[in-house]
Amino acid sequence: MAPPGSGPSAGASCSSSARGGGASAEAPDGYASSSPPPPIAELPHEVLCTILVQLGIVQVGKLGMVSRDCRTAASRWLGTEVQHLRVERALCRWADERILGLIKAVSAGVGALTIDCSPRRPSAGSSGSNVAAAVLGRYASAHGARLLLETSSAPTERGFASFDALAPVLACCASLRALTLREATMLTEAHARRIAAQCAHLSSLSLIDCSGLSDWAVGHVVLQLPHLSELNLSRNLQLSAKVLVAIA
């Protein structure tokens, strides 16, 4: 004879408890585990622009090193939203190859380009790093976050000097109308002529403190730019008054 309490009612009780336990183990819809965020490159353009514009080009450039998806998002923003690219301050500490890559990334829509070629100095750190980590932390892995916050390159004695490689990159900037090179002491006459040949649509040109320029090179450059309406040759003490009067 079965002991009291071991009949079907007990079995039903156990079965009911099992069902109850199973039901309680399932989290309600409102408390379901959150799904992973969408890849940053798939965000709507307006949302992506709102995020990246707060970071600035320096941090966006570092973001592009985190992953393929981040690189796609950074290139998308750079190619459509940057109208005037200024390679100065923190960007000056980037290696020449990275600067050239940045110019390529904005080539579709950039209308003005400024490159400060002065000697690179040690970085004191960027206040935007914390902002970048806070905004993009959920999209980057731990390794990617470290890359995001690292300095872009070690300082060197000279500044940007890859003018041979710059000319063909500028040829891709169909909308470029203003170019400024500052303290480009490594710029030679051949470089200046080649850049002018690739940028015949320029209306504004500033070659400031470019000690490698000569009277002949300046005259040749001006002849290659039929749309030129503004020319700045400040701090070029090696140029004679004669050529300045001739091109005025």
- What is the succession of H and E elements? HHHEHEHHHEHEHEH
- Beta content comes to 5-15%
Task: Return Rg in Å.
Answer: 30 Å
Main sheet: strands, sense, barrel: 5 strands, parallel
Helix content: 40-55%
Tally of helical runs: 10
Distance from N terminus to C terminus (CA atoms, Å) equals: 119 Å
Helix-strand makeup class: alpha/beta
Shape: elongated
Unreliable spans:
8-25, 125-129, 151-155
Number of strands: 5
Give the strand line-up of the largest sheet: 1-2-3-4-5
Mean pLDDT: 79
Account of the protein in words:
The protein has 248 residues and is of the alpha/beta class. Helix content is 46%, strand content 9%. It has helices spanning 8-25, 45-63, 68-81, 96-106, 128-136, 142-149, 163-170, 189-198, 215-223, 241-247; strands at 84-87, 112-116, 178-182, 204-208, 230-232. The protein has a five-stranded parallel beta sheet with strand order 1-2-3-4-5, with helices on one face. Strand 4, helix 9 (215-223) and strand 5 (230-232) form a beta-alpha-beta unit. Helix 8 (189-198) runs parallel beside helix 9 (215-223) and helix 9 packs parallel to helix 10. It is elongated. The model is unreliable at 8-25, 125-129 and 151-155 (pLDDT under 50).
